[in-house]
Design goal:
Elements lengths: L1 H15 L3 H12 L31 H11 L3 H17 L7 H12 L8 E2 L5 E2 L3 E5 L23 E4 L6 H7 L14 H16 L5 H11 L3 H16 L4
Antiparallel strand pairs: 1-2, 3-4
Helix pairs in contact: 3-4, 4-5, 4-7, 5-9, 7-8
Length: 246
Amino acid sequence: MFEVSAVRWLRTLAVLGATALLLASSCSWQLGPFIPKGVPPPPGAAVPPVDTHAKGRPADQLHEWAAAHSAALKIPVTALEAYGYAARVAEVENPNCHIAWTTLAGIGQVESHHGTYHHAILSPNGDVRPPIRGVVLDGTNGTMRIIDSDPGAMGSESDTVRAMGPMQFIPETWREYGVDANNDNKADVDNIDDAALSAAGYLCWRGKDLATPRGWITALWAYNDSDEYARAVRDWATAYAAGHPL
């Protein structure tokens, strides 16, 4: 049930709270003085209130809202429901975060075309099939080398990793932040509801207040340590807020 998921989401943040000062200090020297213009991007169309304890797939509550904006934004209805719901849950569970659905949609577009990359199919329940996997992060071809401390946990026999799912989580990050958002009693990296809410939790933890330029860019650099990536997400989020995708 969602109650368990929400508690787990908050517990993850609480457990990590002991390292908050260390993380804050380590981020400060990496950030430097430069923050690109247009950060944070606008929040976009207001998301209607939702019942975060609803039975079934809670994101379905936003169907009317998502359907009204989907065609103009060129975002699948199911994906837009997931982004809007994740932003609403974050508002309830972490009101100081101020994450907007437009930021989640920008990440979803850059990472996987909202769960449709390479002709993947996004189902009404949020499942993405076939699963989307990134390139092997083994240090070749310009990639970072990232070692999975527990490869068997995600069904892999290799200690090198691939980013997974519509929001492209690294396995270890998913194990810490992955939550069940659609009440099917499992946290599935290949479900866009679960992935969007997990991304919101991760971004809120790393950025603290995404309504501030420093908070937003800190969160995006934690998600993907690349200026180009952050600018791409900013541009897509800004376009979605304006109602005119790039």
